[in-house]
Amino acid sequence: MSKGQNGGVGLALGGGGARGLAHIPVLEALDELGVRPERIAGTSIGAIFGAAYASGMTGAEIRAHTLDVLGQPARVLRKLMELLPRGFREMFTRSALMPAQFDAGRVIDLFLPAGVKQDFCELEIPLSIVATDFYGWHEAELTTGPLRQAIAASIALPVIFRPVTMGGRVLIDGGIVNPLPVDKLAGSKLVIAVDVVGGPEKRAKRETPSATEAIFGASQILMQAIITEKLRHDKADILLRPAINQFRVLDFLKARAILEAAGPVKEELKIRLDQVLSAV
Q1: What is the predicted pLDDT for the residue at 120?
Q2: N or C, which terminus of the chain has less Cβ within 10 Å?
């Protein structure tokens, strides 16, 4: 494909918390190949990077911003401290003294690149963002209106973030119902999907997982089951699974290590895209 050519490529960026930083090498590879997606669909952290890319930022710019923000742990913690409730009463919810949740919108405002647009209508590439309608028991596809509020809804992981209310609906993390939104790209000639959910891996020195490992591993297995079923019905011409399974959903302060581990996916995409296009 020539530089800037629209080749009918649809790009699905999945959810996976910090593992989603592995989306960045994929975006860089597309830039280096001169391949510009015609449509993007993103869930959770995939919605963040999808919005940045659809806003016109390059993969290299997104990497630079990510490392600037997450590469300084003290700075990250200081920003998060600014978002914590003040006073003991505000630190805990009324039920079972559960810790208060972060406001996803405020977190987005603090960490999102300035280059990300304010509204879907301003985007250079059409974007679909997936959230979960909590009381409706189904997914909510967001394609119009305030972009940053939609991103906040898509990343609103229970316990960590408070649900987001949009259009009379209470929305939470999109990965709960659609961790890899390939189904939002129907009609694209070629679909590239990036799965960063991962799954539990057996450790040599331990036969059974710890309680925490079991909880996170169970959620990964559930999301992988959803992805498997989705892919039965909605084709992904290129399915990428970066080698970032050793990282956990909240390992954002390991940004450099995640990007390094995900580095080979860039060359993998280039090779596989060349193979697909050569077969056409």
Answers
A1: 98
A2: C
